[in-house]
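Query form — protein Stage II sporulation protein M

QUESTION: What is the three-dimensional structure of this chain?
INPUT:
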Amino acid sequence: MKQETFENRYQHDWQAFEALLEQLEKRQSPSVVQFASHYRRICHYLALAKARTYSPQLQAQLESMVLRGHQQLYNRRTQFLYNSIQFIVLKFPALLRENWRFFWLATALFYLPGLVIFLAIQWDPNIVYTIMNPHQVTEYESMYDPALRHLGRERQSDTDIFMFGFYIWNNVGIAFKTFAGGILFTIGSLFFLLFNGVFFGAFASHIVNVGYQSTFFPFVVGHGAFELTAITIAGAAGIKMGYSLLAPGNLSRLDALKQSTKVAVQLLLGAAFLLVIAAFVEAFWSSSTLLTPTIKYIVGGLFWLVVAGYLTQGGKGYAT
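ANSWER: The structure tokens for Stage II sporulation protein M are given below.
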């Protein structure tokens, strides 16, 4: 293809990409997908121009666009990383404290029913079968039987990385259901918080009754700091979203929902961050049989202090 034909055929692409570059350089925000697609095409055109030995002027023009595009991609990645760190370190804990009423309500709905059922099953062990079927009871017993060589779920793979992925999938699924249920005027979030709290309290109490606490509590104390806190935060986010439909104030229910959802989704993202940490700890630390219970209790206690300090002190003075 002659250079003149090449330029006439693709000139409109170059002009469109120049316009996108100018928007980015002025700190405007065009579609990321659109920009990436254009950038790949410009790189392709430059490769063609070099392969066909088109004029140095044309090659220089395309190289300039590729260089400017690469700089924008690098800047966007750097900015994304910076924004992500800022969100985790500052914005998320500050935002959670602004919504402390929802958080403490979710915490109470999760832990108090769990505590009640825990004490009830200590008083009458047969109550556990009103909450869990016999197969579930047997399964949980086998997970924490001190006579076995593994801790937690029976491994379907010999790699901790596989279990890391499994725990992320499982935990995020629970948190998302707890969050998404809030759209039903808070009912779904309330239900999942109560259900998970009661279920956790029931099997924990049963494990104590059968004498397996020496393996159970050292296993859960570490990742529990992150996992259980994340579930309550997801519940708080869902309750906030549903409450906006119950009490929209001066806004329409749709506008109130839109406004609360912006905050709720950010809380959910923060909960997801904690769940990733929980999955990592559960896969690589909690399940280890090389560590003594004393070490796990000490480290687990430190984890709870870290989470408490992070949520109460992180981002102090940060304006959300």
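ADDITIONAL NOTE: The first helix runs from residue 3 to 25.
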